[in-house]
Each structure stands twice: as structure tokens, then as C-alpha cells.
Amino acid sequence: MNREQLELLLNWLRPLQKALNLEADQGFPDVQGRQQRFHQFLQAELNRPPDLPFPPGVADRLIRLRQGYDTYTTAELSGRRRLVTETRQWLHELRLRLEPSAPMAPPKLRHRDGAGAASARPLPAQRALTLDSPLVELSGVGPKLAARLATLGLLLVRDLLRYYPRDHVDYARLRRIEALVVGETATLVATVRRCNGFVSPKNPNLAILELQLQDPTGRLKVTRFLAGKRFSSTAYLKGQQRLYPVGAQVAVSGLVKDGAYGLSFQDPLIEVLDSADGTIKSDQIGRLLPVYPLTEGLAADRFRQLFTQVLPLTRQWPEPLSSLEQQRYGVIPVADALTALHAPKTREDLDHGRQRLVFDEFLLLQLGLLRRRSELRSRSAPELLIDRQVDGLVERFLALLPFRFTAAQSRVFA
Fold this sequence. Notes:
Layout (H helix, E strand, L loop, with lengths): L2 H23 L12 H9 L11 H11 L8 H22 L11 E2 L31 H8 L6 H5 L5 E4 L14 E15 L6 E10 L2 E10 L6 H10 L5 E11 L2 E5 L2 E4 L6 E2 L7 E4 L8 H11 L12 H7 L4 H9 L4 H32 L14 H8 L6 H7 L1
Parallel strand pairs: 1-9, 5-7
Antiparallel strand pairs: 2-10, 3-4, 3-6, 4-5, 6-7, 6-8
Helix pairs in contact: 1-2, 1-4, 2-3, 10-11
């Protein structure tokens, strides 16, 4: 039933239920309305239901109810009570049958404590990194990776912390299958119904893994592409299929696409859960994932891993605002803002982080303008000497003006 049909149904049911409630509250006296009595109103309304696709049996039930009100005035009190109660209950059930049910609540995910794309885990004590440490001192950063980072202008730890994401992929948006929207990134929890791995008939070096998933609201196909000759072996594909046994609970994050067979996820992030309410171990599934502008040869996952080491160093970032000033302007500490931008836990955290960093940019701009104004005011203006006799240009200019100077204008001109 669409929205217009539902409105027609409700417009018919509301006055009926109101009349039935009033009759019951008054003790079933066959209440006299403005134009007709209660039983006459019920007979008339039950005789003209809206033109809707009612389920089978509704028409017969309406006839029986109308016939019951034919003898309402002569029936005993117990008979009136029974008929009104039956009518109220049946109309309520009819509404529940025809009214669309509310969408099922999204799944719940529990993340591992401290996990994240760039969570602030403590650094080993022997690694005395600072904001001015070269990036080559980070674990896993050799000369080759350091050179690639340098092409992005990233030389020191402070450079990396100030290298902001260009966007965030919202995998924290939890959905049921029926609520997925094409073009939207989302995360769902579902059960594996079938898993099939095969080699592409067009490319012998491309393996395809297909999963059929199901949750209480529907079904969805998930496809993963594995490029490389080693992925095309039968043994490897069998091993991949064993990772996703039938009946296993999985958490899936990705971009929703529309295909010939309905909605699907292509190349999503997948993790098998220990149980339906198991803990997510992934640093990406179900989270706000930062997306950085990168250069050739620098993988996004590898780049995000660098922040695992440097985010704890945000505590060293100088804070220009006092706690009172932060409270006055409604901003969070700059260390929290940097963490929220690179490893946001919620959309609200991300918004607060952006607000603080934008506030700092405007503050520096305003301070720069005030400093320039102060410097200009501290200088004496150069003396402007005008010789009125030289070629008479000044006198000729004044003569061209269509007005005469006031006394104040003359003083200024002098």
C-alpha cells in the first residue's frame, strides 16, 4: 500500500474509531450525534469503505458488521458491548495488516577497543619521536617510501599530521539489506547462504568470489575480484570459499551498486564474525575511513598505517587557546581535532574536528590582518608636497570640479 492509499484508509478509520471509543466511554447508549445516532453512523460508514485493494474476506466481514448494527437499538447491553468491541478490534487488525511496517532497525557492531584506521595507541618507549622527527624514523618507512612521501611535501611528523584527508568514506552507516541505497556506502551484517569461487572465462588471471548474503529483510550478492595468476588456482579458490562457510555471520562494508540482478557490493571489505553480535577486529569496517590525496606507488592502506604511529604525537602539538577560550568559542583542543580528522569515531567527532581547524585558519588570517594594520599605523605617512605653480596642473584640476571645497575638504587637501 502506497502513501496515498494509506491516507485514504486512515481518513476512513479515524472517525469510525472515534465514534466507537465515544460509544464505549458513554456506556453503549447509542449516542445521539448532530445528525444521526451511533448505530446509523456505523452502518453508513461501513457501507462505503475506500476503494482500496483489501485482502480477501474484508467485504464479507463488513456486511456482517453492518447487519449486526441493524438490531443495535433493541439489543441488550452485553450484546452492544460485544459488537462494539468486535468492531474496534477488527478495524485495528485491518489497519495493522495494511499499514506498512516500520523499517527494521540497523544492525549493531561492536568494535575492538582502541582499534581504528589510525587509533592513538601508545608508542614504544624506546622510540623518542617528536613532531620534528623525519618520517624515515617511523617503523616501516625506508628511503624509497620516504622519497615518495617527500613528493607530497611530507618530510616531518608534523607535515603528516597536517596532511588532511580530502574526504571520508562513511562505512559507519549501518543498514539492513532492504534499506540500502544505490551510490551510498554502508555496512551490513548478514548470513552467508552460498559462496562460489571461479576463474573469469574472459581472463584466466582474474578470479571471482561470489557470496550470497541474507539478513531478516532480504538478500544481496557480494562480488570480490582477485587479480593475479596465483589467485586463479583451484587450491586458492577452495581456501577462499572455506573462509566463508554457509551460515557464517559476516560484516560487509562497501559501495552499493545496482546491477542486472539487483543491488550488490563489489570488492567490499568483509570480515567473518565469531557470532551475530561479535566484535569487529577490522580497522576499516563500520568506520569513517579517511581518504587522502596520494601519489603513484603509495597505497592507501599503507599510508593510513603511518598514522597509527604518529597520532599519539598530537599531544605534543602546541595549543594556542586556553581552556576558557576553547569554552567561549565552542571548540575542542587542537590535539583532539587532529585525531578526529584522521581517525574519527563518529560523524559528530569529525565535524567538531573540522570546526576547530577551520577556526584556527580564520584566527591566523585575522591575526595577520591585525598585525599588518598595526604595522601600517605605526609608520608615519610620507609628506605630500604639492607645488601649485608647476604647470598649474593642480589649479586646473580644481577648476574642473563641479563644486567648491568645503572648509574641511580644504584642510584635508592642505
